[in-house]
């Protein structure tokens, strides 16, 4: 612990020499590789909320404010560990390759329209949530973009979030910018920026290809350097620029 503190202090002061004094760097060394990949036990707060402390507190404030305006923010999904993501990935992989007869690479492309490769999900961080409005009745899948658009059951909440979520630190990640690559538009997925920005900065320093090469879940044998490089550029980094 002492040693780590020493290294951190040294590197930060080292950088301070080269950078203008008004630029402050986030303490990204506080996040371990396991933590960034969803393999560590982190302290999460709130029954059914499961966010890091500061994100949890701000979420409650946002929920309260929305409630006063007639919306019941309900979390559909928040923290998900590596192993849970691995189960989701493998279920889809088997479905697409065996039931639907797709080639492995085609199946992987299909999975990554909406689901992440285990170890690369923002849901591993305890900062990101998928939310809907608990009030309107709605049938079938709830995380469908049309349901957040004009005439859909969550239109009201979406308009409220457009106006208010950033005041509480929550930003849309996969916005509807037509030039954006990677994951499709997800009007339900919000991220608590004050923590997820430094976490993404730390994540960018990982060698994702090398880390994924060590994994053995279905489909990993088809991951090439080019595929992972594009995946990182498009699916991890081509997001709402305010979260970079
Ligand atoms: Zn999500």
TrEMBL record:
Matching InterPro entries: DD-CPase-like, VanY-like_core_dom, Zn_M74/Hedgehog-like
Residues annotated as transmembrane: none
UniProt cross-references to Pfam families, sorted A to Z: VanY (PF02557)
Keywords carried by this UniProt record: Carboxypeptidase, Hydrolase, Protease, Signal
Taxonomic lineage of the native organism: Bacteria, Pseudomonadati, Bacteroidota, Flavobacteriia, Flavobacteriales
One MF annotation (Gene Ontology) recorded for this entry: carboxypeptidase activity
Species whose genome carries this gene: Flagellimonas aequoris
Secretion signal span: 1-18
Ranges in coiled-coil conformation: none
Gene Ontology biological process terms, A to Z: proteolysis
Annotated SUPFAM superfamilies: Hedgehog/DD-peptidase (SSF55166)
Start and end residues of each D-alanyl-D-alanine carboxypeptidase-like core domain: 49-194
Protein name per Swiss-Prot or TrEMBL: D-alanyl-D-alanine carboxypeptidase family protein
Keyword check for Chaperone: no
